[in-house]
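Q: For a teaching handout, I want to show students what a protein-ligand complex looks like in token form. Below are the inputs, and the small molecule is NAP. Please produce the holo structure.
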Amino acid sequence: MYAITLPSFGGPDAMRWAQVPDPVPGHGEVLVDVAASAVNRADLLQRQGHYPPPDGVSDVPGLECSGTIAELGAGVTGWEPGQRVCALLAGGGYAERVVVPTTQLMPVPDGVGLVDAAGIPEVACTVWSNVVMRAGLTAGRTLLVHGGSGGIGTHAIQVASALGATVATTAGSPDRLARCRELGAAIAVDHRTADFVAALREVGGADVILDNMGAKYLRKNLDALAPDGWLTIIGMQGGATGELPIGAMLAKRARVTAMGLRGRPLDGPGGKADIVREVTEHVLPMYADGRVRTVVHATVPMADAAEAHRLLESGGVFGKILLRCDADRASVEAP
Ligand SMILES: NC(=O)c1ccc[n+]([C@@H]2O[C@H](COP(=O)([O-])OP(=O)(O)OC[C@H]3O[C@@H](n4cnc5c(N)ncnc54)[C@H](OP(=O)(O)O)[C@@H]3O)[C@@H](O)[C@H]2O)c1
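A: Here is the structure, written as tokens, with NAP included.
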């Protein structure tokens, strides 16, 4: 098969579309013919040599995919060859074929295109595990999600709105804020020109904050939190080391947690199998009935992954960039 390989670390052109051995499904795994994968910020770090795959995981990049089941490994029940699936991966998605443990496999929701489904697993598992499983967001509560214009943000706005929560968000231009409002955000703040803390204080604070910025927003996030609120940090776009104001935490009885999805164990409490099961039960039906959709900024042939990485690095992407796995190298399709 062909896959994106990294003969050396570096810029987007370090990636090569090259022939590699086909993966073979082991016990409890299936082989998937990949229709598409999607680009995540972690892929950029992996390409630069800053985010190695966990032990035993393929060094082909790609944390999610969609496709059809080609072959069942030993001991697999409940899945059939030819079935349309999408999958959360620890790596290996930028390839024509990938092996997936069945505990990381999800059926493609009815009415969702096979290529679009590649944009579901990473955002759905990250948002649900942080915002609902951990921080307990429910109807009537307020979620602040930073970067509402990103892959995570566009999904979180829709899911939290579907749950009946009030959603506040930040993004980087009036046009992007307007698009966040169309997705369901009631409060949208331009992070370049306005103070999100003031906007949140007007509504009594955020019960849950999903944060992509890390150090830069640590103090502000605590100021924007409601009493008994929960700050859950998933990104370090604003730095990895900051000062935690414990006085502000005490006053609000705040909880601050941080969570990475990729390195989590497959099984056990809070493992990937639990998350995938919950997403299948609670989030995929939201796609099937149209309350949630993958917001696709562009679809790029997988062999041109370098182009997709340049696009994400250049800024201005709204939603997800998908990597379509097919033989032709058609030019970038952007809506
Ligand atoms: N821990 C995990 O398991 C996990 C899983 C998935 C993703 N992540 C992380 O979560 C973050 C979001 O992922 P993604 O896929 O949504 O990335 P993305 O699509 O690249 O979006 C990044 C977002 O950051 C926003 N942003 C930039 N500067 C900002 C600022 N000063 N204040 C608020 N927002 C700002 C951008 O908004 P504008 O362009 O509108 O300014 C954009 O919406 C990334 O850091 C990613 O690495 C973590």
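A: Two things your students might notice: The two ends are 30 Å apart (CA to CA). Residues 40-42, 122, 126, 146-147, 149-153, 170-172, 176, 191, 212-213, 234-235, 237, 259-261, 312, 315 surround NAP (CB under 6 Å).
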